[in-house]
Amino acid sequence: MVSLTYIAAALATLPLIFILVHLVRAGAASINPAFFMQMPKPVGESGGGMANAIVGTLILISIAATVGLPIGIGAGLYLAEHKGKRLANTVRFLSDVLNGLPSIVMGIFAWQFLVRPAGHFSALAGGIALGVMMIPLVTRTTEEMIRIVPNSLREAALALGYQRWRTSLSIILRTALPGIVTGALVAVARVAGETAPLLFTAFGNQFWSAAIQRPIAALPLQIFTYAISPYDAWHSQAWAGALVLIGIVLVISIAARLATRSRFGSAVD
Amino acid sequence: MSTDASPPLVPGQAAPPTESGDLSRSIASSGAGDRVYTGLTTFFALCIPLLLAFLALEIGRAAWPAFSRFGLGFITSSEWNVPAGRFGAAPAIFGTIVSSVIALVLATPLAIGVAIFLSEFAPPWLQQPVAFLVDLLAAIPSVVYGLWGIFVLIPLLRDPVIPFLRDTLHLGATPFFAGPAYGPSMLAAGVILAIMSLPYISAVSREVLRAVPRSQREAALALGATRWEMIWDAVLPNARSGIIGGVILGLGRALGETMAVTMVIGNRAEISASLLAPGYTMASLIANEFSEATSDLHLSALMAVGGVLFVITIVVNGIARWLVWTVERGAAG
C-alpha cells in the first residue's frame, strides 16, 4: 500500500513535466529576437512576432496592479487590525467568495459594467477586471503577513508615543513589506495568464496599440486565437507565445521568492 | 532598529510639565490622523462587499429578461437554440457537472496519495521538490493547458487511450464510451480539469494531514499498528472532513474553469451519455458565444448562465471552506 503513494506522487508530477517538456520542444524553435520585436504576420507569411501582445500584457498587468494593490493592501490592513469584529469576518468571507468567482463571470461583469456603457472594448476594462481578481489574493496575504508581525513591535511604538496610524504604516506595514510584496507578485503572476476576463474587455488587437481607451492585444488572448486557428504557422507561434507567457509567470514567481528571502536580510533597517 | 534616525515622536514643542499632560495631548493630537487612517482602511475593506453586491446586481439585472421569459424552464430545458430564440441551460449545466465529476474521480485518489506520500512517507530530500512540482501545476495559465490539450492530450486520447478503453477493457459496449470519437470531448475536458484541480486538492489535503495531532499517530503505533494501518485507521478518519473540503474546493475550481475547457470540450449544446461526445460547460458556453451574441435575449441568456454559475460556485466554495475550517479548528482546540 505504501508503494501506491509513491506511484501517486510519480503520476502527479508527470503532467507538469510532460507539459513543460512539450512547451519547450514546440515553442523554442519560434523564439528569436523577431518574436519580441515584430508584429504578428498575416496568414501565409512566416515569421513575425508578438511584440504588441507582450506590451499589451504588461500594460494590462500595470492597470490591474494599480487597481488591485491599494484596495487589497488597505483591506488586508483593516482585517488584521479589526480581528474578530463582525464586519471584518464578513469581509474576510466575501473576499474568499470573490476569490472563488469564475474568471468568465468576472469577464461578463466587466463587460456589462465598463464596456457596454462605453460602447467599445478597452484595455482599461480588461485591466480593471484583472485588478478586481487580484484583490482577494492581496487582501489575504497582506492580512497574514501583518498578523505575524510580533505584537510587541506595535506596543513598543505606541508606548513611545507613535500615533496609531503611524505605527501601522511605518512600523507594522514596513516590517511586513517583503511578505506583502511577495503576495502582490504572486497575485500579478496569477492574473498575467488569465484569458477569460479579457475576452470581452481587452478583446485583443492585431495591430499596435498602447492606448488604454482602445482594444489591446494580450499574450493569453493571442495564444488562444492562434491555438484554435487552422494554420500550422500560427500553431507554432501559439507554442512560442505560451513559452514566453510561462517565462513571464516564472520570472515574477521567482522575484516573489527573492522578496521573501530579503525579509531575513536587510529589508528592515 | 535605530531609533535615532526616527523623526521626533511627538510632533510638539517643549517638554510637557507632567507625564499625564503629555499623554492626554498626544491622544488628542492623534485623533485626526487616526480617523483618516481608519476611514481609509475601512473604505478599502468595504470595497469588497460593495463590489460583490454590485456584481450580483449588474449580472442579475442583465440576466433578468431571460429569467422572466423562460422561468424555471431556463434551467430544466435542454434546448439551446439560438436562431429560434429558445434558451435552456440544461446541457451546459449537465456538461459542467459531468466534466467536474470526471475530474474529481481522476484527481482525488492521486491528490490524496500525493498528500499521504508527502506527509508520511517521503524521504526529506524528496518532500520539497515533489510538493513544489505539484504546486506548480496551479501556476500554469489555463490557456496553456488548453493549448496542450488540443495538440497533445486529444491526439493521445484518440490513439492509445480510447481504443484501449473500448477494445481491451470492453467499455465500448457501455453507453459511456459509445459513438464516434472525434477528439474534442467531455472526456478530454474532464482529464484537463483533473490535472488543473489536482494541486488544489493535494495542497489542502497535505495541510489537513499535517494538522492531525502527533499523539494520534503515536497511539496507533504504540498499539502495534503498521505504518499503513496507522494512516488508514488513525490519521485519515481524523482528516476526513478536511480532505472532503479540499476535494470540494477543487470542485469549485473545476466548475468555473473556462479557457482550457472551451478549447477541448467541442462546444456543442447536447446532452449525451457518451463521454466521447462533445459538450458544453456553463463557462465554455459563455466564452464561446458571448462575443457573437446576436440578440438581446441571447445576451441575457448568457448572462443568466453566468449568474447560475456564480451562485453554484458560491455554494460549493462555502461548503468547502466550512469543512476545512471545522478540521482546522478541531486541530487547534
Account of the 3D structure:
The complex is a heterodimer of chains A (269) and B (333). Chain A has 269 residues and is mainly α. Helix content of chain A is 72%, strand content 0%. Chain A is built from ten helices and no strands. Chain A is globular. Chain A starts with a helix and ends in an 8-residue tail after the last helix. Chain B is mainly α and 333 residues long. Chain B has eleven helices and two strands; from the N terminus they run H-H-E-E-H-H-H-H-H-H-H-H-H. Chain B has helices spanning 19-70, 73-76, 90-121, 124-136, 142-168, 186-211, 214-222, 227-256, 259-264, 282-289, 296-332; strands spanning 80-81, 86-87. In chain B, helix 3 (90-121) packs antiparallel against helix 8 and helix 6 packs across helix 8 (227-256). The longest helix of chain B is centred in the first third of the chain and has 52 residues, at 19-70. Chain B starts with 18 loop residues before the first helix and ends with a helix. The interface between A and B is large, with 90 and 90 residues.
> What's the oligomerization state?
heterodimer
Query: What's the domain count of chain B?
Result: 1
- Name of the level-1 CATH class of chain B: Mainly Alpha
- Indicate the mean pLDDT of chain A: 91
Question: CATH topology of chain A, anyone?
Answer: MetI-like fold
Task: Record keyword descriptors for this entry.
heterodimer, A: 269 residues, mainly alpha, MetI-like fold, 72% helix, disordered C terminus, B: 333 residues, two-stranded antiparallel ribbon, 11 helices, globular, disordered N terminus
In short:
The complex is a heterodimer of chains A (269) and B (333). With 269 residues, chain A is an all-alpha fold.
How would the blueprint of this fold be written?
The complex is a heterodimer of chains A (269) and B (333).
Chain A (H helix, E strand, L loop, with lengths): L1 H26 L5 H5 L13 H31 L4 H14 L3 H16 L4 H25 L3 H9 L4 H29 L26 H9 L4 H30 L8
Chain B lengths: L18 H52 L2 H4 L3 E2 L4 E2 L2 H32 L2 H13 L5 H27 L17 H26 L2 H9 L4 H30 L2 H6 L17 H8 L6 H37 L1
Antiparallel strand pairs in B: 1-2
